[in-house]
Amino acid sequence: MTPSLERWTVERSTELYGVREWGAGFFGISPSGELQVTAEPGKFENAVSIPEIIEGIQARGLDMPVLLRIENILDTQISLLNESFQDAIRSLDYKGTYLGAYPIKVNQQQQVVEAVTRHGKKYHHGLEAGSKAELIAAMGMLRDTEAVLVCNGYKDQEFIDLGLHATRLGFTCIMVVEMPGELPLIIERSKVLGVEPILGVRVKLSTQAGGLWTESGGDRSIFGLNAAQIIDVIDALKEADMLDRLQLLHYHLGSQIPNIREIRSAVAEASRVYAGLVAEGAGMRYLDLGGGLAVDYDGTQTNFMSSRNYSVNEYCVDVVEGVMTVLDEQKVPHPTIITESGRALVAYYSMLLFNVLDFARFEPEPLPEKLPPDTHIQVQHLFEALQALNLRTIQECFNDSLYYRDEVRQAFSNGKMSFRQRALADNVFWEIIRRIAVLSKDLPALPHDLENVGQALSDIYYCNFSVFQSLPDAWAIGQLFPVMPVHRLGEEPTREGLLADITCDCDGKIDRFIDSQGVKRSMPLHELKENEEYYLGAFLVGAYQETLGDLHNLLGDTNVVTIRIRQGGQYDFVGELEGDSVEDVLTYVEYDPKALLARFRETAENAVRHGRITPSERRETLSAYRSGLQGYTYFER
């Protein structure tokens, strides 16, 4: 990027990084150029500086990278969802109620589930469990018997018995039949334990949603029953004299549904099925829409897969209205609406903060005015293309440079060109690309072939984190997260770069960034300053990222800090968890650190025996090894 003549301002940084669009009122830039966060959207008089938080984290002995949670942002999102449904119910004169069920799989961390149940209690916000372990966690965390505890997923006898015991304790524990074979076992165990179950059934809707999770819906979706199988369930329950225990219809259209029309279509179809179950004599009370409420990661408010074309209020109104439209026509009483929204609750709650360690630039070395007489003919052709380059010849010279670069590589591979000549050719080629990138800014329309020229020249900023551990969706499914510097935002960012992590993997990078026009392959960044840290943040990472992260290169969990923002820009540190040590991650992959130390001690003693080190050097070496075992898995200054 070339510095502009116009003075840079924090407002221009706000526009450049789209903070106002994706930040949902939680994030803004202070007059001093620091990113700030508030728990009350738009109320920046109570905002806290993120660099100030980083300083406090480091003063307490924790280092980057850090997963920072803002506890009362989660409170705000739970309130927003529940109160938006309550407003829609009142305004439309809906006769039923709303209950939320947070799906534990979205973020299973104990602090997160505890925060959901604590703040959600006033709304009777419950939990959804999709496995035996999640059900055990839910039973231990949930105290509110008016909240629902929805049990999805495959269920063996132990899972079913746990759900029945929860019902016996007074929980509104609803076991959802996902597979035809589950029902006979549920009926059998309920009779053995003498507990009347609350049952649900998951239907496969024909409606499918767009986005990355389209296969969650439709006739070929993995979970759920088709119409004929649901009739079999009804008949089996009639035979067991338990049809009144079937009280919930559940479906799941997919996660991150960007288009409200698809949500409405699914609600209409599911409401028809619900009415059909009522007509069959089932004791229906609940309609569970599953998840799907999207997060506007890129701030475009469109039906792009990383966005959504509706607000939370619009979502709630459309859901309530959609249910009413069908059921009023069928003269069916309005059910309690349940949604299993997780992403929309926890995404804003967490951000990943990390420092930049180094950078690399793709800038050619200065070229001679004339080439040496013995220069290879293909290198000479490249040099001629460089000299002929101007606005009129830009496409022709670009094509020529690609052709001659390939010829150079072929000649080198065949042993007909020296390594020094090859290096000269590379330098000439990259100088052509650099000049094309500069010239192309003056073109009224950019030829398709030249659209990614700037990307080829972008810097690489090496950052202290692991994509695979902390942002796995960015690597696995191309999820876009807002990423930006958290300070120096009163300065113009004069470089374009992509971010590389510290894993030794070419996929360990972020090279897709949000943009109002779609997706960019690089982002604006500042020049690094000597002896000064440069901090970046990846935002809206609260959903799935902690759960899905892996141990690529044995880089473990990061440090985690939770704060609660108070009035007037004050805040409290309310929780901290130290990230994994090297010893921790080695145990995860079945090493015994004590056995490793013992084996290494033998290796060191053998080195003393052979005169390679002295006994005092052995002590220093073993001390370094012990220290390494206890150290953070990430880069430490």
Quick structural overview:
The chain is α/β, with parallel strands linked by helices. The chain contains 22 helices and 23 strands.
What does this protein look like?
The protein is an alpha/beta fold. The protein is 40% helix and 16% strand. The protein has 22 helices and 23 strands. Strands 4, 13, 14, 15, 16, 17, 20, 21, 22 and 23 form a 10-stranded mixed beta sheet that branches. Helix 13 packs antiparallel against helix 14 and helix 13 (377-387) runs parallel beside helix 15 (419-440). The model has no long low-confidence stretch (mean pLDDT 92).
Task: Tell me the layout of helices and strands.
Layout: H1 10-16, H2 19-22, E1 27-29, E2 35-37, E3 48-49, H3 50-59, E4 66-70, H4 71-92, E5 98-103, H5 110-120, E6 126-129, H6 132-141, E7 148-151, H7 157-168, E8 172-177, H8 182-193, E9 198-202, H9 227-239, E10 246-250, H10 260-279, E11 286-288, H11 312-329, E12 336-339, H12 343-346, E13 350-360, H13 377-387, H14 394-413, H15 419-440, H16 453-456, E14 459-463, H17 467-470, H18 472-476, E15 483-485, E16 495-500, E17 509-510, E18 513-515, E19 518-520, E20 523-525, E21 535-539, H19 545-548, E22 559-565, E23 571-577, H20 582-588, H21 593-609, H22 615-630
Parallel strand pairs: 4-22, 5-6, 5-12, 6-7, 7-8, 8-9, 9-10, 10-11, 11-12, 14-16
Antiparallel strand pairs: 1-2, 2-3, 4-13, 13-14, 13-21, 15-21, 16-17, 16-20, 18-19, 22-23
Helix pairs in contact: 4-5, 4-11, 6-7, 7-8, 10-11, 13-14, 13-15, 14-15, 21-22
